[in-house]
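Dear support,

I submitted the protein below through the web form. The confirmation email said the job was done, but the results page showed an empty box. After a refresh the structure appeared. I'm attaching both so you can tell me whether what I see now is the final result or a partial one.
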Amino acid sequence: MDDVLVALRMIVALAAVLGLLLFLSRRLQKAGAKGGSPLDGLLPKKLGRLSVLRPPRSSASKSARPRPEKITVVARTGIGAKAQLVVAEFGGIRYVLGVTEGGVSVVDTQEAPAEIDETIDDETIDDETIDDERGDDTERPPLTSVA
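What the results page shows now:
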């Protein structure tokens, strides 16, 4: 008889938990459909007025914030089993960083060099121009294409 009562109590408790989950999920779905906060659906309407006291967060204020400049990793090299030397650029300054398991330490900082965009056309530079720049008069065989 005791086993039957324990089983009946377990079934009633399980039904109560499942009913509560079903009730909360429907209430949250209705609140989400209205466009409000999902947690607004959990509060009764009388207590929902308390959320008016708190200013809502608008997505427009987030987009009005200027976006920070991105950190660019210029170079990276391993100097040990668990250590690296990293050159990173941020805000026009290059940082030389030592990176280990224990943390990151700044080794050196310097201003980033100005970017020079030199486009070289094949038509404007020939072999004689290159030889003149090197000061070299030796004859070289012409370059051939591998592809």
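Response: this is the final, complete result; the empty box was a page-load delay. The longest strand covers residues 103-111.
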